[in-house]
Every structure is written in structure tokens, then in C-alpha cells.
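This part of the workshop introduces the protein records we will be handling. An example says more than a description, so a record of this kind follows:
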Amino acid sequence: MSSFFLPAVKTRRQGGKADTKEQPAKRKRPTPVKKKRALVDQDVEIESELSSAEEDQLDIEDESDDETPQEKRLRLAKEQLARVAAEEMEKGEDIDHAAIAHRLQEDVLEQSGRLQRKVADQYETPDPSAVRFFRGHDLSVTCVAISPDDRHVFSGSKDCSVYKWDVASGRKVACIAHDRHGVASDPKGHRAHVLAIAVSSSGKYMVSGGHDTNVMVWNAEDCRLLKVFKGHKKAVSGLAFRKNTHELFSASFDRSVKLWNLDEMAYVETLYGHQDEIMAIDSLNRERCLTAGGSDHSVRLWKIPEESHLIFHGHTSSIDCCKMINEQYSVAGSQDGGISLWNFLKKKPVFIRRAAHKPSSAPAAAAEASAASGGQPWISAVGALPNSDLVVSAGSMDGSIKFWKCHNHFVRMEELFSVPMAGVVNSLAFSSSGDFLVAGIGQEHRLGRWWTVKRAKNRVAIIPLPKTQQATTTVPAKAAAKTSR
């Protein structure tokens, strides 16, 4: 073996000496003019050939790499302007520059969390006979979500299924059935109660989670399974997309919040802090999310870039639901029967409406609900029309859904009207246009079987919200807060 390698070593040394004599300075590396690649099967080199499309793509990437921050901001602004102009043209034949300017101003305020639309006074009491119901689930509906174009509704249930409904016709478009005989390592659907559903603002993805601990990503168009995220050790209780992105937040009974990137279909990080099971989660534009901590009696705002979170206390019992109104205010509901209004700059709620859903308003089972909840019906669901002063809530078994107006720049809440609804309302969601409200109704609470409303039906309710012709007022929230002081 040694005799085989000796000649090679000797030749290398000789070559090294010759190079040393001829190199008083370092030899310059020749600049490659064209990319070359070696073929393994043939010991030859060929010039790499790119198609015109690939060359254009490379040119675009090179330009994006070379552009300055100012140029990038200008490019993004032009793209945003073109998108808004295209959307306005779809509404009418001519481009309304005033409408485009107003729309751009609202987008800026929304991104900064300072947008506030005063719309609550526009709404009139809905006609109970105009409420439509979609039936198909065998057990209680636990969660609902609406597509960004308001054309479809997704619902999850204790029967382990997910349905997609057409809002206009009420027809069931698709069904993700219970995966009864599937393999746990390769699921085709949920194998336990579905507790949470969310739809991306692009309308591309729909995600669902539940007691099987899986976060399942679906194609929102045809309900085709794309990815299964595993990582939570207990039930997934809440899901929320960051608006205008494919960043997904998931909350679980294992007391953790996980962040996922659906563009890469990858896990990002895990957030810890809650001392008990997390019951709900929500998110808007900024890189942050809001969670309700159940029996640890806290609401927490997680700031992802800062790697920190704020803790808010105010209820005496488990906080089961929460919703962000805008980037500065939120609403939460508790098992103590109260609805609280929160300012993220203060540790205590700015307003609490005690006994928001009184037991006396329940037509039947009020005594049973009061006994089970310690005297007051639990607040089982809350909702908010983003960047507005309109909030909605539902009490377990009190037989109504109540609409609230946030008065005096979110200093207090006042009841506007209520809609009768038999059964336990487990989930509420406003359409993006604010024209209707979707409610998930069942005979049982989404988290347990403490009581059963036998006269109720497991279904999805579409509640139309009639409006007057009063104009909407847009107020920067920051300026409003200064005015209230």
C-alpha cells in the first residue's frame, strides 16, 4: 500500500517547489464569465443555459437584492396602490381617487392599530325569522370561521367532522369526515372532537385542530389535506392567522402557544407562560397574539419580536374566550358571567359588565345553568368586528346573543339589542363586511358535558345584520384616547 502512494506524494512535492519559485506574489483567481457544471457521466464541461423566463427571474432577484430600503418601500407602495385601484375598479367602471385615498388611509391606520370605525349605531335589531340555519353535524358545533370573501363558512363539531358551507345557498360544499379507521401516523381527518378552525386572509388555507392534538392544514378551495403539524401534547383549543400573512398561532391545553409558517410548512417556535390550559387565541395585523388562560384567570398578549408578553388579570373565574377589537383593545368572557374590556396599556380591565347574560332571560333551563355556573351563565363566546366599536357575546344556555357598543373611546360598553338563540352558542364570527354574524350552536358546551339542552339542535346559524344609511366615522384610536383623557 505504501509503495502505491509514494510516487504521487513525490510528484506533488516537486510541483509544490516549482510553484514556490514562480510565485513571488499570490496568483489572481480568474473571474468566471459563464457558469459551468461538470457532468458526472462524461468528464466534460458545458455552459449552463438558462431560459428567458429563468433569466428574467434572476434579474428580478438581483434587483431586489440590490435595492435600497427606500426603493423597497416605494416598490411595495406602488404594488399596494395598484392592488387597491384594481379592487376599486371591480366595484365601478371609473376609478374614484377619493375612495382610493380613503382606502389607503384606512390601511395605514389599520396596520398601525389606530383605526376605529364607529359602526355600532348603524345596526338595527335583526328579525329572528330571517335567521338561517345549516344542519348537518350530528353533535354540537364547537367552532366556525368565514372565508375572507364572505362566500363560505367552515364549521367544526364534536362529531370530529369539518363542513364547508355556501352562504348564499346554504348548501354543504365539502365534508371532512371523521377518520374512524385511519392510522394515527398518517391521518386523513380528525379522530377526536374538533375545537378550533381558522382561515387565512388570502383564502388559501384552512386549518383545524382538536382533541387529537394535530393541527391540520387544508386547501380551503377543495378541502384537500396539505400538511399535519404535530407538536402539541394535549388538545388544540385555538387557532388564529396573523392577518395578510400565512403565520399561524395555535393554542393548546398543554399551556403552550406555537407559531407555524405555512409558506414553508414549518414549525417556528413555542411560547410558554400560562399556568393552566389555554382556552382561546386571536391575532390581527401585528406580530403578536392574544390568549385566554382559563383557570389561571389571565389574558396574555404575546409580543413575538420582543420575545415577551403582557399579563392581565381581572376576572374571578376561568376566562374561556377572548377577541381582539384592534391592536390596542380586546374583549374577554369568563365563567363568572362577566364581559371585560381591556386596554393593552393597563393591567386591569377598563370596564367589566357583570352578569352580562342574566339567568332570568333564559326561557327554559335557566336554573340548571345558574347552578352549574355558580349563579350566572358562563360567557361561552365573544366576537368583535375588527377595528370598530361593535362587540357580540353569548351566554351558555341563557337563550340569547347580545350585541354591545363600546362607548366613549372604549371606556364602557352598552347593550344594543339581542337575538334569541336556543342552545349553547360555542362560537361567534363576524363577516369581513359586517353584513352577517355566524354562530356555532349545540346541545352541549364545546369543552364538556356539564349539561345538555335537549330542545336545541346542533347547527350553524347565519344572522343577517340590517343597517341604516348612517355614514361610518373613522377615528384614529390614539387620538381618541388622548381626547378621552
Residues 351 and 412 are 6 Å apart (CA to CA).
